[in-house]
Amino acid sequence: MTAPEITGEIRARRVSAVDIARQAMARIETEDGRYNAVTRVLHQRAMECAARIDRLLAAGQDPGPLAGVPFGVKDLFDVRGEVTTAGSRVLAGSSSATKDAILVSRLIEAGAVPVATTNMDEFAYGFATDNAHHGVTRNPHDQDRLAGGSSGGSAAGVAAGFFPVALGSDTNGSIRVPASLCGVWGLRATQGRLPTEGSYPFVASLDTVGPFATSSAYLRATFEALSRATLPAINTRDWRIARLGGWFATNMTTDMAQAMDSLAGHLDATQVVELPEVARARAAAFVISAAEGGSLHLPRLREFADEYDPAVRDRLLAGALLPAHIVFKAQRLRNWFRRQMHKAFVNADILIAPAVPCVAPRLDEPTIRIDGRDVPARANLGIYTQPLTLAGFPILTLPMRTSGLPLGAQLIARPGREDQLFALAAELEGSGMTASPKKHDHAA
Questions:
Q1: Strand ranges (E), 193-232
Q2: Under 8 Å CB-to-CB from 331, ≥6 apart: which residues?
Q3: Tell me, what's the pLDDT at 217?
Q4: Active-site position among 88, 154, 169, 174
Q5: Phi, psi at residue 90, to the nearest 5°?
Q6: With contact defined as beta carbons under 8 Å apart, do 140 and 159 qualify?
Q7: Distances (CA, A) of 127 to 149, 152, 290, 363
Q8: Please, which residues have CB within 8 angstroms of residue 248's CB and are 6 or more apart in sequence?
Q9: Alpha-carbon distance 251 to 237, whole Å?
Q10: Domains of the chain
Q11: What gap in Å lies between CA 294 and CA 315, rounded to an integer?
């Protein structure tokens, strides 16, 4: 069943929330060996939440808009009674969380049921979900390919039909990249709009959080639950849609270029906007991420360096050694680039751009082609997402209609205008411009 079918059947009391949760968890235990999307199944907590929904319905009370919908939780969000590992054995011996992260709590209040924690790149540092402790997450569309990261377990779990909704985080593209490669919907909300309390930080000045979902409607419903806001219904007629060019028009594969041309044609996006100094913006995001991440982990690295994933450890140590004046320059560039992003909307309501340069790389060849060279996918799949990180604008990733493996596009709006993103996403989905969910797109 899809998420709307789940809520409909539960509200009509033709099926119980407990049964839906049991079926979802049984499916994970039976099928996740193929994907490695899940790190823990939350049996006890799921049963508690599902039983509460059934009791409310029996008493004639409304259990919430997401009644009985199973959801996955990226393993950097606190779940009461569980150890938040952020994908690392370094934290495995920590105390269990005494309360839920705010976003987990809000989904539960809306009636959703947490059924699993999901795999991720260690401490969210990567675009691959290739975890030295938990293993690599495989793409449900092709198990020989990456799912993307760092929220790859959440995206893959949605794509595999384990749960219709999942939580992720996005610092440099960690929602947008895996959503694109796994063919699901994802949202990086306006920075600061959704609370990060109860989520393990990576880069405090850039971190954002947001949902994955199987459709634009359920992405919107989940965002409304997370933000505790009801978005207005708006008309997309006469909107000015512009396409990002320059940096965002190079290094695409032929398949991605064709998909973007089709999307732009449907939207009549003939205007091309070129943001200045995008390469420097991406470099600034790299510097800020490395410096803040390195500073956060340096005390623990001094004692437990051997327990880190070596690839993550080395990047964090390098970041901790960055001179202060380099970091200061990166932050100055960030402020300047944000102003340039605002200027890009003077003659446009929405900007569109590719989310990734290519389909998911193979596990046995985890590289992508950039400027004529093969470079590591783990660090470079965010070539189109990372520069936009600096501005903090809201970005919705949608699965484009293709003849092969999934490819995603970014819809970008002004800060606080998630309503515009959802309105355009619904129009594109309704007109057949987005990919349909996989045949196994169900949670029970």
A1: 208-213
A2: 205, 284, 288
A3: 95
A4: 174
A5: -60, -35
A6: yes
A7: 4, 8, 14, 13
A8: 278, 353, 354, 384
A9: 32
A10: 3-227 (3.90.1300.10), 241-415 (3.90.1300.10)
A11: 8
- Please, what sign has the CA dihedral across residues 199, 131, 397, 116? negative
Two tokens, residue 80: 């009461």
Backbone angles phi, psi at 229, to 5 degrees: -140, 140
Helix ranges (DSSP H) in 345-395: 377-380, 386-389
How wide is the angle at C-alpha 214 spanned by C-alphas 348 and 173, nearest 5°? 55
Q: What percent of the chain has pLDDT over 70?
A: 98
HSE value, Cβ hemisphere, 13 Å, CA-based, for 259: 30
Phi, psi (5° rounding) for residue 315?
Answer: -70, -40
The DSSP call for residue 247 is G
431 counts as catalytic: no
Tally of CB atoms within 10 A around 28: 25
3-state class (DSSP) for residue 413: coil
Q: What is the pLDDT of residue 440?
A: 44
pLDDT digits (tens, 9 = 90+) for 64-78: 999 999 999 999 999
SS3 426: helix
Q: Is 343 a catalytic residue?
A: no
Distance CA 251, CA 380 (A): 12
Paired strand residues for 131: 135
Please choose, from the candidates 92, 103, 73, 69, the residue with its C-alpha nearest in 3D space to the C-alpha of residue 1.
69
Q: State residue 101 phi and psi, 5-degree precision.
A: -60, 155
What's the mean pLDDT in 210-223?
A: 97
147, two tokens: 């799912």
**Model-wide pTM > 0.85:** yes
> 167 — phi, psi (to 5°)?
-100, 140
What span, in angstroms and rounded, lies between the C-alpha atoms of 386 and 221?
26
Tell whether the torsion through CA atoms of 51, 57, 61 and 64 is positive or negative. positive
Question: What confidence score (pLDDT) does residue 439 get?
Answer: 46
Annotated catalytic residue 150:
yes
Find the range with the poorest average confidence among 2-6, 79-83, 140-144, 232-236.
2-6
Stretch (H or E) spanning 409:
strand 408-412
- Structure tokens, 242: 């512009």
List 105, 150, 151, 216, catalytic entry: 150
User: Which of 169, 165, 184 is CA-nearest to residue 71?
Assistant: 165
Q: What is the pLDDT of residue 211?
A: 98
| 311 CB neighbour count, 10 Å cutoff | 18
List Cβ neighbours of 175 (8 Å cut-off, separation of 6 or more). Answer: 151, 155, 168, 169, 186, 187, 188, 210, 212, 397
Q: Which of 16, 74, 88, 169 is catalytic?
A: 74
